[in-house]
Amino acid sequence: MIEHLLVSYWLLIPIALFALLVKTPWFKGVWGEFVVNLLSNIFLNKNDYHLVRNVTVPTNNGTTQIDHIIVSQYGVFVVETKNMKGWIFGSAGQKMWTQKIYKHTSQFQNPLHQNYKHVKTLQELLGLTDESIHSLIVFIGDSTFKTDMPDNVTQGFGYLRYIKSKRENILPLSKVNEVMAKIETERLTPSFKTHREHVQHVKEIVREKENQMTCQKCGSPMVKRQAKKGANKGNLFWGCSQYPKCKNIVNIT
């Protein structure tokens, strides 16, 4: 009896650890990229569309990491993946978008703005025109758009429909091959070291932005504060410096 209990106990440990792992941002990101990679390999003709994933390229001040690049005669698609749930609010021009899960509200960077750096870095690197490169956002997970989104912000299979909607031959086959070769030549070698250095670069950018938060409602500086009472007691958040005139807040997640 005791032996059975001990065996059951030890079996529960890896299950509990895995349950914790799947809730981490790292796993959600990896899973989202895996789903996009799988769908692309299944539903996009490999003769027409050439998928390159997890591409890290150097920039003037560090590196930028691109989830997926899909190269075709119909243009180069730069794909940013978001694995999120809940209600999603946002528009093309907003700096921050909102995620709402029941009563919990948080904000995240507009993925179109995030992908803009990827697109421009790749465009300069490959010598492409604006017409031949496409920014594409795909949300994976149980999320619902609660505001109208641009055509290039998609969910699930929607990104495949967007790609296949582009039917104009923009790049000749010779240019497609040249672009593929250039990506492989210029990308940093995929490795733990490359990923670690990129993550460190992103953390430095985040630290710089922590002191540059601006209120999206009135344009005033935001101040980091701590909740004193209620369900969020002890949690940090950004509060508008014009409070109580402006009561805008941004949760720090």
What would your notes on this structure say?
This protein has 253 residues and is of the alpha/beta class. It is 38% helix and 29% strand. The chain has 6 helices and 12 strands. The relative contact order is 0.12.
Radius of gyration equals 21 Å
Poorly predicted segments? none
Helix content: 25-40%
Mean pLDDT: 82
**Number of E-type strands:** 12
Please give the alpha-carbon distance between the first and last residues: 44 Å
Number of helices: 6
Strand order of the largest sheet: 1-2-3-7-9
Main β-sheet: number of strands, strand sense, barrel status?
A: 5 strands, mixed
How much strand content do the residues show? 25-35%
Assembly state: single chain
C-alpha geometry: elongated
Sequence of secondary-structure elements = HHEEEEEEHEEEHHHEEE
Structural class: alpha/beta
From the structure above, extract its key features.
single chain; 12 strands; alpha/beta; 253 residues
